[in-house]
Design a protein that fits this description.
alpha/beta, Endonuclease, Chain A, 2 domains, 12 helices, 6-stranded mixed sheet, 434 Repressor (Amino-terminal Domain), 6 strands, 12% strand
Length: 276
C-alpha cells in the first residue's frame, strides 16, 4: 500500500490504541472510509486516530466497541489515554474552543474557567480534594490544563468572547479576600479587552433568566455551531443543530435581559468594595 504509515504501538498509549484499531479494521477487511461510515466519522478522522495524530474521545472509543463487537475493551483503553482529572466530554470540547471564532459563556455560582486566576482555581480544586473527589495530582493537572486553555485564547487573532456571569458568582467568596481581590481585577481587565463583552445577569432577573444551567457555545471558522454543557460528573458536547440552536437563542435572550457591560463593570466595582 503506497502511503501506508508504519505504526509503532510501543511509542505511547495513543499509538497503541491506533495500532489496535488498524488491526481490528484490517482483520475485517474494511477500508478507513468503510469503518468511518460505520462509526459516523470521516475517513480522515479514522486515519488520524490510527496514526496517533488525533486524540481518542469517549464517543469514538465507545463507537469502535459497538462496531467491532469488543465489549468495552476499547472504551477502557481510551479512558486510560485521557486525563483522568477531566470530565468526559471536555476533551472533545477543548480543541474546538481553541479554533473558535466566537465563544459564548454563561456560568452560575462560580466564575468561568477561562477567566479564573491561578489562586481562584486552586481554591476551587482544594475544595474538591477535601471532598475526596480527586487527588492532589489530578487537581494540579486540572489547573495546568485550565491555564493552558486561557493562554490558547490569547492568540494573535483571538476569538470574540461573550461572557455572562450570574450576580451570585460575584458574591461567592472563593479563597478569601485576597484571592477575590485579584479575581475582581481579572474580571475588569477582561472587560476592557477589545474582543470581549462581559455582562452580569442580576438577581432581579428572577425567573426570567433564559438559561438555568452553565453553557459554552462555540462558532467555528466553518460557521458550524456547537454547545458544551456539563453536570457534576459528565460533560457533553452537542453538535446537532436541533439541540444547539435553541441554546444560542436562549443565550441571546439572556444577553438582552442582562446588564450592559458598563453597568456590569459598575456592579463588579461595587461588590469589590463591599467585600474588601
Amino acid at each position: 500500500m503506497v502511503n501506508r504509515r508504519k505504526l509503532d504501538p510501543g511509542k505511547n498509549p495513543r499509538a497503541a490504541f491506533g495500532a489496535r484499531l488498524r488491526v481490528l479494521r484490517e482483520e475485517r477487511g474494511w477500508t478507513q472510509p468503510e469503518l468511518g461510515a460505520l462509526m459516523g466519522y470521516a475517513a480522515s478522522h479514522i486515519s488520524g486516530v490510527e496514526t496517533g495524530t488525533r486524540g481518542v474521545t469517549a464517543r469514538f472509543s465507545e463507537s469502535a466497541d459497538r462496531v467491532f463487537g469488543t465489549g468495552d475493551a476499547l472504551t477502557r483503553q481510551g479512558d486510560r489515554l485521557r486525563n483522568p482529572s477531566m470530565l468526559r466530554g471536555f476533551d472533545e470540547y477543548i480543541p474546538l474552543e481553541g479554533e473558535a471564532t466566537e465563544i459564548r459563556v454563561f456560568e452560575l455560582s462560580v466564575l468561568p474557567g477561562i477567566i479564573q486566576t491561578r489562586q481562584y482555581a486552586g481554591a476551587m480544586q482544594s475544595s474538591v480534594i477535601a471532598r475526596g473527589a480527586i487527588t492532589t495530582q489530578q487537581a494540579e493537572e486540572r489547573i495546568a490544563r485550565q491555564l493552558a486553555r486561557q493562554k490558547a485564547l490569547m492568540r494573535v487573532a483571538p476569538p470574540k468572547i461573550f461572557m455572562i456571569i450570574d450576580e451570585g458568582a460575584l458574591y461567592h467568596r472563593v479563597g478569601g479576600t485576597e484571592v477575590m481581590a485579584e479575581q475582581y481585577e481579572r474580571l475588569l481587565d477582561f472587560a476592557a479587552l477589545p474582543n470581549t463583552v462581559l455582562q452580569v445577569a442580576p438577581f432581579s432577573m428572577g425567573e426570567h433568566r433564559a438559561l438555568g444551567f452553565p453553557v459554552n457555545l462555540l462558532t467555528l471558522r466553518s460557521g458550524t455551531r456547537v454547545a458544551y454543557t456539563e453536570s457534576a460528573q459528565l460533560g457533553h458536547l452537542e453538535r446537532e443543530s436541533r439541540y444547539v440552536e435553541p441554546l444560542f437563542t436562549a443565550y441571546c435572550h439572556l444577553q438582552v435581559e442582562s446588564l450592559s457591560q458598563t453597568a456590569s463593570v459598575a456592579v463588579i466595582e461595587r461588590v469589590r468594595k463591599e467585600t474588601s
